Amino acid sequence: MTPEDLRQYLRFYRDLGFEEVYHREPPPQPVVALPDQPSASTDLFSDLMSNDPRETLEQIVADLGACTRCRLHQGRTHIVFGVGSQKAKIVFVGEGPGADEDAQGIPFVGRAGQLLTQMIENTATREGLPLKRPDVYICNVVKCRPPENRTPEKDEMETCSPFLFRQLEAIRPKAIVALGGVATKALLGASTGIMQLRGKWHDWRGIPVMATYHPAFLLRGYNAAYKREAWEDLKKVLHYVYG
Ligand code: URA
Fold first, then answer.
1. pLDDT tens-digit profile of 212-240?
2. Sequence-distant (≥ 6) Cβ neighbours of residue 121 within 8 angstroms
C-alpha cells in the first residue's frame, strides 16, 4: 500500500465516523480465498468442454455495435459498455456514464468512480478479503452519457437495459449491487425510493440484488452520513458472496 493509498484509506474511515485506527499484525487472512485467475489452458479446456449456452460479453458488444438506437448516441464520445471479468462474482450497476467515463469509455473512472473503488477495496481489506476493483464487473443502465448528466429518460432506459440484462445473464454473478435509484428501478421495476429499498436483498432473475446509494450521492457533503449505510450494504454483499 502506497502512502497515498493509506491516506485515502484513513480519510474514507474518518468520513464513516471512525475516530481511532489500530495497526494489526499480521494482516487479516481472507475469510475465503478468492479464486485464482484460471490459466489459459484451463480456460481453453473448460471452453471446449462446456455446453454453456450463455452469450459472451464480446458477442453482446458486437451486437451493440456503433449503437444509434436512442438519442443518447448523438452526444457521446464513447459507448461505455462495462469493465471487468465475465467470471466476476459481483456486478455493480450504475446509472449512466458521466463526462470522464464518456471520454475514456470506462465506467466509474471520475470522482464517483474513485469513491466506488475505495468503497470496494477498503471494505474488502477491512473484511480480510483480497478483493480489488478488477475482480468485480462494473457497468451502467445506459451506455451513453446523457447530456449534462441528466437522469436517463424512460425510453432511453427501455432501449438500453436489454443490453444490461444480457450482460448480467452472461455473467450470472453471485450478487448484483444496484447503485442508486435508477439502477434499482431498472433491475427491480420498483417505484419505491432507494431510501426504502437500500440495505435489503431483492431479486433479479434468481440473482440476489443489494440496493444501495449511488457514490455520486455520497460525494455531496451533506450526504456524507449515508456513507456508513453504504458501507454496511457492501459488507453484507461481501459476506454473502465470500462467506
Ligand atoms: N455514474 C454512473 O452512474 N456511472 C458511471 O459510470 C459514472 C458515474
1. 999 999 999 999 889 999 999 999 999 99
2. 131, 132, 133
Domain ranges of the chain: 57-242
Compute the distance from residue 107 Cα to the ligand 1 centre, in Å: 6
Q: What's the rounded Cα separation, in Å, for the pair 106 and 152? A: 18
The closest-lying atom of ligand 1 relative to the alpha carbon of residue 183 is 3
Spacing, Cα 149 to ligand 1 middle (Å): 9
Q: Which residues line ligand 1 (CB under 6 A)?
A: 94-98, 101, 107-108, 110, 112-113, 140, 216
CATH number of 57-242: 3.40.470.10
**Segment 14-65, tens digit of pLDDT:** 777 676 666 555 444 433 333 333 433 344 444 444 567 899 999 999 999 9
Please report which confidence band the pLDDT of residue 71 belongs to, taking 50, 70 and 90 as the band edges.
Answer: very high
Best residue for ligand 1 mutational test, from 108, 139, 149 (most atoms within 8 Å of Cβ)? 108
* Closest approach atom of ligand 1 to CA 140: 4
Q: Could you give the maximum distance between any two Cα atoms of the chain, in Å?
A: 55
Spatial distance between the Cα atoms of 11 and 126, rounded to a whole number of angstroms: 14
| Model pLDDT for residues 122-142, shown as the tens digit of each residue | 999 999 999 999 999 999 999
CA of 193 to the centre of ligand 1 (A): 19
Among residues 233, 175, 228, 209, the alpha carbon closest in space to that of 15 is found at 228
243 alpha carbon to ligand 1 midpoint, in Å? 28
Taking the centre of ligand 1 as the mean of its atom positions, its distance from the CA of residue 228, in whole angstroms, is: 20
Q: How far is CA 205 from the centre of its chain?
A: 18
